[in-house]
Amino acid sequence: VVMCSNPQTMNADFVLSFFGSLSPEHSLECLKELMARNMRGTIQIVTQVSAKYTEQIGSAALCELFESFKCYEGLFMYLGQVVNFSQDPVVHFKYIESAAKMQQYKEVERVCRDSTVFNPEEVKTFLMEAKLPDPRPLIHVCDRFDFVDEMTAYLYSSNLTKYVEVYCQKVSPQKTPQVIGKLLDLDCNEDFIRNLLNSVGIACPVEELVEQVERRNRLRLLQPWLEAQVATGNR
Q: What pLDDT, on a 0 to 100 scale, did the predictor assign at position 103?
């Protein structure tokens, strides 16, 4: 009780050692008591304890603890200490979610780009619903796990066409035909499509592009681009 009411007097090493002597159930109760009495004053030590004993207490129970207090800062701090070593998809998803709530968009992007653990469908759905100011995390997920049609539709409908250009020019030029096909389905402005093709140039696979456009009876759209490729000796 003294520890709970006077968090500023707590020695971190002592507290970490003390929790090592408790059962997982008692540890969780103590952490809950610390947060209930003085969440702002105890958040540092609570996240340290949570990270140190995450395997014993269980990441699901710890995530639930922070969420029950709507303490997304604590959740972000705790998961930030364990996410790089965890093989639990829930840990990776909750870290992406809490990082987004804390506006730590670089961290959201890092995990979406590098993690091999999260559930792609779950993360894609969350990012589309969250409508982050920077869609790069979503672009990484959609590129890595082949949600290109859904990504294109999201960026187009959200007036984020500059990111469609960046995707085709710099991220995955080889997937330009699929993007063009989806843009045609969305009745995208033909001038935008022509400019996009011109900017990608020879990096765009011709056979797949012709197949995508022909399937939609829009081959005439490609004629100037194809002629330009032949004239410059690129095809």
A: 97
**CB-neighbour burial class of residue 76 (10 A; exposed 0-12, middle 13-18, buried 19+):** buried
> What integer pLDDT is reported at residue 133 of this predicted model?
93
CB 170 within 8 A of CB 202: no
CB 137 within 8 A of CB 105: yes
Q: How buried is 233 (Cβ within 10 angstroms: 0-12 exposed, 13-18 middle, 19+ buried)? A: exposed
Query: Residue 120: is its pLDDT beyond 70?
Result: yes
Amino acid making up residue 6: N
Task: Residue 42: name the closest of 59, 53, 30, 54 by CA.
Answer: 30
Helix axes 190-200, 176-185, angle to 10 degrees: 180
